[in-house]
Write a structure and sequence with these properties.
This protein is α+β, with helices and mostly antiparallel strands. The chain has three domains: 61 residues, Uridine Diphospho-n-acetylenolpyruvylglucosamine Reductase, domain 2 (2-Layer Sandwich), CATH 3.30.43; 145 residues, 2-Layer Sandwich (Uridine Diphospho-n-acetylenolpyruvylglucosamine Reductase, domain 3); 109 residues, Uridine Diphospho-n-acetylenolpyruvylglucosamine Reductase, domain 1. 25% of the residues lie in helices and 23% in strands. It is built from eight helices and 18 strands. The strands form six sheets. Strands 5, 6, 7, 10, 11 and 12 form a six-stranded antiparallel beta sheet that branches. Strands 1-4-2 form a three-stranded parallel beta sheet, with helices on one face. Strands 13-15-14 form a three-stranded antiparallel beta sheet. The longest helix is centred in the last third of the chain and has 19 residues. The chain is globular and about 50 Å long. The two termini are 21 Å apart. It binds flavin-adenine dinucleotide (FAD).
Length: 334
């Protein structure tokens, strides 16, 4: 039996009681219903890039989504694309860019599957899945039935969706609406990263991949800085008054609410004394040498060491600034 160490990018976690890897949507639905009927614990696994699993797992049945298929329907302004949940996210991005479509190129290099992308509303450089997702098919754990959920039903927020708030089940496919465009519409964050000059989606993809690689944010087997879940904490959103009095020097970004600002979690962590490459004594968990916001596995870290460092960082930031950092990955079996 594979251990979760072998199928997650943090590379920790024990062996589940069972692991199946359905290849078609019919198999995926059948496997879920079968496991759910047992009443035992279960986990839907995509690329394992946002999961920290305990080394001592309780009885757990893992359903690893490996369904494939991309169906493109052209429209007068671009295309509507239906993607099966097990497709690799970055391969999907590459596919759309090659087809002259724009809307997700700034999210190049994010690991994982398309089916997981709505769960935390993945995003990078000002683009997020919520901007381009039209609807998805969902198999609901409570009812055992499939349903179509529209974008407005999904309660998308910053790294947040209804799937983090009690909507339990499995995403079967996701549909996106992208536009044909010679140039990428640059968000504030993308201009900050790449500059204001007009660029094609392909140019944006290439530059984003290069930027991410410098920060250890593109998976690279030999590089321990990428044995991670990417950012371990979300950027905290605080009141504008708090930001201007308590953290006036902290880099920040506007949010949809004009009374609030999003602060740089990486800056808070560094100013709280946890720099790049930091580890607790004799621990094999450390912050990335390229980015203080990523907790990484330096070789054979235990899941307890990863969580211990996360708690240490939370306590350091809380003591220094009174801000509670919220972990982004899903912690399984702790
Ligand atoms: C190096 C690195 C860089 C990263 N950079 C970013 C970034 O820039 N922006 C960003 O937003 N994220 C980033 N991440 C986090 C991660 O890539 C995303 O959260 C991604 O969407 C996770 O996909 P996955 O298939 O690996 O999900 P998994 O880790 O396998 O699962 C994550 C969660 O989604 C659930 N899930 C998975 N598939 C389904 C499904 N079909 N139906 C229902 N639930 C499902 C799982 O049960 C779990 O709760 C990064 C991670 C790494 C390692």
């Amino acid at each position: 039996m594979l251990s979760l160490r072998e199928v997650t990018t943090m590379r920790v976690g024990g062996s589940p009681a069972s692991l199946v890897a359905p290849q078609t949507s019919d198999e995926l639905i059948a496997e879920c219903l079968k496991v759910w009927a047992t009443g035992e614990d279960w986990l839907i696994l995509g690329g394992g890039s946002n999961i920290v699993a305990a080394d001592e797992l309780p009885l757990l049945n893992v359903i690893k989504v490996e369904t494939k298929g991309i169906q493109i329907d052209e429209t007068p302004t671009g295309a509507v694309i239906r993607v099966q949940a097990g497709e690799d996210w970055d391969e999907f991005v590459a596919h759309t860019v090659a087809a002259g479509l724009s809307g997700i190129e700034a999210m190049s290099g994010i690991p994982g599957t398309v089916g997981a992308s709505p769960v935390q509303n993945v995003g990078a450089y000002g683009q997020e899945v919520a901007d381009v997702l039209t609807r998805l098919e969902f198999l609901d754990y409570e009812t055992g039935n499939t349903e179509i959920l529209e974008n407005k039903d999904l309660a998308f927020g910053y790294r947040d969706s209804i799937f983090k708030h009690g909507k339990v089940g499995v995403i079967i496919w996701v549909e996106f609406k992208l536009v044909s465009s010679a140039h990428t519409h640059k968000t504030e964050r993308l201009i900050e990263a790449l500059g204001p000059a007009e660029e094609t989606p392909l140019e944006v993809r290439k530059r984003v991949l290069a930027l991410r690689a410098q920060k250890g944010m593109v998976l690279n087997e030999p590089d321990h800085d990428t044995w991670s879940c990417g950012s371990f904490f979300t950027n905290p959103i605080v009141s504008r008054a708090f930001a201007t009095t308590v953290t006036p020097d902290c880099p920040n970004w506007e949010t949809a609410n004009e009374d609030e600002l999003k602060l740089s979690a990486a800056w808070l962590i560094e100013k709280a004394g946890v720099g790049k490459g930091f580890s607790l004594s004799s621990s094999k968990a450390a912050t990335s040498t390229k980015h203080s916001l990523a907790i990484t596995n330096r070789g054979d870290a235990t899941s307890a060491e990863i969580v211990e460092l996360a708690k240490f960082i939370q306590t350091s930031v809380s003591n220094r600034f009174g801000i509670n950092l919220v972990p982004e990955p899903n912690l399984i079996g702790f």
